[in-house]
Amino acid sequence: MKVWAVVERGTRDRTGAHGPDLRRVSHEIAAKAASLGDATVLDPHGSGERSSTVALAAALTERAKTDRPDLILIGATPAGRDLGARLAARLGWAYASEITDLKVEAGALLMMRTMYAGKVRATVRAALPAVVSVRPSAFPLPPDAASPTTEPIQVDASAEKLGFQRFEPTASATGRVPLGEARVIVSGGRGLKGPENWKMVEELAGTLGAALGASRAVTDAGWRPNEEQVGQTGKTVSPDLYIALGISGAIQHLAGMTSSKVIVAVNKDPDADIFKVCDYGVVADLFEFLPAFTEEVKKVKGAG
Fold first, then answer.
1. Burial class (CB in 10 A: 0-12, 13-18, 19+), 200
2. DSSP state letter for 240
3. Which among 298, 26, 15, 5 has a CA at the least distance from the CA of 178?
4. SS3 of 243, please?
């Protein structure tokens, strides 16, 4: 079976130009493609120039008409979901979005994906050829996995007659792992009582080398930038460890993080919904527990 993995690079700066490093999900889909058959890893961002998903879809469509792959894998990032849908529509192929598992059975794809805000895990069957967007962390990446060899694909942005309009930049967290690719995430909610207390969350995150997350109530209140929101209307994440601090567990938040490998929740309300989905729960006053917990983590990290 001929499989394409279309990779994506991290954003280098506010201009939107792409940096030198592949996103983690790109490494994951490249490894999955290699396990499925004859894999080609295509890099439309090899030049570092910014281009729209419209132009990318056009370039990949032309290439697909000659190479005829059976399956195209794309990371389920905001740009990847956009690209995947456009590409499938242009090719007239089946399309499945944000899948969490995939196998080939009897000449068709058998996939797993969550639906209805994470309440249902559905098995989806699709005929080949197909385009599939893969949720980050869906396919575990071996620790010794080599970086894939990529093949650049030429994208003619001028062919689509599109221009870019720059808007005012929004507040952005810097110096941390991107939320969607983080292995460890520390998230805070209204239980922190105000933005002035966020330094406690940042201290724990810094100690663990974690990304910062937040509930919708926190970003709506302006305590944290929107890019940190986890949930149905924010980012969907699947880290190895998710620590929820002062988050009650509204269904829209749970929809974005229940696929985490291990969930730790701290809340003073023993009836909080977050305790229904967590692996480890702590009923405690956040302002007493969190500083003590952070100090213990520092001791363990220092001893290691």
1. buried
2. S
3. 26
4. strand
At residue 136, the pLDDT reads: 86
Report yes or no: 298 and 207 within 8 Å, Cβ to Cβ: yes
Give the contacts of 38 (CB within 8 A, at least 6 positions apart).
Answer: 1, 2, 3
- Residue 186's closest CA among 212, 217, 150? 212
Tell me whether residue 167 is in a domain: no
Spell out the alpha helix ranges (H) of the chain: 24-36, 53-67, 78-91, 198-208, 216-220, 251-254, 286-303
Could you give the CA distance from residue 68 to residue 218 in angstroms, rounded to a whole number?
47
**Whether residue 47 is found in the same domain as residue 142:** yes
- Which two tokens mark 245? 């601090």
User: What's the rounded Cα separation, in Å, for the pair 39 and 269?
Assistant: 50
pLDDT of residue 170: 52
| pLDDT per position as a tens digit, 13-61 | 444 444 468 888 999 999 999 999 999 999 986 555 556 888 899 999 9
At residue 202, the pLDDT reads 95
pTM of the model: 0.74
Amino acid at 264: V
Q: Are residues 208 and 235 in the same domain?
A: yes
Decide if 106 is inside a domain.
yes
pLDDT of 92 strictly over 80: yes
**CB-based contact 6:72 (threshold 8 Å):** yes
- pLDDT (tens digit per residue) in 168-207: 555 555 556 778 788 999 999 999 999 999 999 999 999 9
Its domain, for residue 245, covers: 179-303
Q: What is the pLDDT of residue 50?
A: 59
- Measured between its terminal Cα atoms, the distance across the chain in Å is 45
Q: What gap in Å lies between CA 186 and CA 282, rounded to an integer? A: 15
- Residue 19 resides in a domain: yes
Give the β-pairing of 211-214 and 108-115.
unpaired
Question: Going by DSSP bridges, is the β-strand pair 184-188/130-134 parallel, antiparallel, or unpaired?
Answer: unpaired
